[in-house]
Amino acid sequence: MLLALAIATIVNVSLNFREYSIKGATEKATMTAAIVKDGLTAHMVNDMMDKRQYFLDQISNNHSEVKSLWIVRSPLVTKQYGQGFSSETLRDEIDKETLQSGKIVQTIQEGTDSIILRVSVPYIATTSQPNCLQCHNVQRGETLGAISMEFDITNMRNAGMVTILKILAINLGFIVIVLFLLNHYVSPYMKLFSSMQEGITKAYSGDFTHTFFTNVKGDARNIAEQLNTLFSKMQETFGNIKYNLSTFIPQGCVASKDPLQEAKSIIGELSDIYKFKKTIELDLDKETVYKRFIDALEYKFDIHEFAFYQVNQSTHERKLIYSSTDKAMCSDHVNHNASLCRAFRTQSDVISTEYIDLCQACHKQDGFYVCIPFSINDDYSIVLNIAAKNESEVSQINAKTPSIKNYLEAAKPVIESRILTAKLRDTSLRDGMTGLYNRRFLEEFIDQVISQANRKDETYTVLMLDVDFFKMVNDTYGHDLGDKVIVELANVLKKSIREADLAIRYGGEEFLILLHNATAEGALNVAAKIHQSFAALTFDVGMGETMKKTISIGIAKYPDDADSIWKTIKFADTALYEAKNTGRNKIVEFQADMFKGEDF
Fold this sequence. Notes:
The chain is an alpha+beta fold. Helices cover 51% and strands 18% of the residues. A five-stranded antiparallel β-sheet has the order 6-5-9-8-7. A hairpin with a 4-residue loop joins strand 2 (105-110) and strand 3. The longest helix has 51 residues, at 154-204. The model has no long low-confidence stretch (mean pLDDT 82).
């Protein structure tokens, strides 16, 4: 390192000497050119231009560094005053380049015994004092000529070489002294550093048993003793780190005698969970989050036979989210009463090897299973049923269970958020007064529903309902009673249709019902039931008086009556219009001759 530093210093000094020599010679050339310029101007003003060569020779003879000096006339001056002396012609390409560019041009000619700086300085026409344009037929800024010189800077180079040799000698002497001092004073420290390196190398593999020793006294000995104390505690310390990390990830790290490796594995597990959480935070709904968790079960935990359920804690209804097999592990009636599931009821893991026939609702009496419950919030919880082939596989699943729960714990706030978002979404698609779906729901989802129906070759019957003379109710008894009539009609609709059917408040007092896979007779029966049930209602209008109302219903069938659902809705509305125009309080099925409009 010292030798490299010495060489770098010498190279730097050499370059600086050379640059300084050239720069100094260039500055002298510039100054000399200025003197020549002023002298020639004076000669011209005093009409002494025929004596100019003597003036130039004196400058060259009185400056030892100036090897030669001459002037060159430009074509403009030659044209006006003639060729001049024989020495005032172009001598080389440097003179020519200077006259053409109007800029200083210089070159270095280096040899073994000399170094020559060749400089050519242009003489530019100016209008300041002196005003060149008074004597010369040129434009301001044009080149009148050039002053060329050769400087011998060999002495500067020689002086630099002597200086460099002195610096080299000083550096070599310094290196010898430093090496001696290093060997005498630093070697013990180097031995200590080697011992430290050996100890650290062992520590990388989890071995903290290395003992540090040194003959050096003072701070070095204190450092060795402190390192011995530190390393004696490292094994215990990393054991504590591992334990603390395990509070975040109780399991999932590879067991190892190396505490560093074990800590690394736990931190890796934490990193995986963090990535999982950051991924699901960007998912739009809880179904996508569930899919991410299912993927983790299959690809990270290598679990391939399982069922994943969501449980409504208010109704105790259990919904299958995903099953890897067609066979259910639990009885079907558990889906209607989740309390029959031991894991959900006790909120504790159910492991088949703990007791014979542990869960009465499980079908896998001839196999093994692990059921893991997990509460999301007061409304929903999750139950994970995992099948196993033998007791050994059950043990493997039990070892993975804490990590599985940590993934669920990471997903919990995201699932809660998506459940809330779904509730808000559902609220925006429902009519606030009746609780039925609104027209926005119809516009957003009907095409999706019908597309699915077409794939399965299903049908829909559309019922369009309208309260007869409803405006009169609002005008006569007020909107409060009108709202009550709407709410009671909505209740009738809810009681009259199946779960697979859809009831929608289409607008005002108008309602729409989509009957799924209903026969013609079945659709008429539903319409008649709604018609009769609503007609049987009695409304208290105050002052001891009551009121009854009737409805009109139009019916159209998809795809029998129309090839699109929107056209079917239009035809149902046409049938309703027919019912109202022919006396109201009746049920009318759509006929082709009812529709008088243009092609839909």
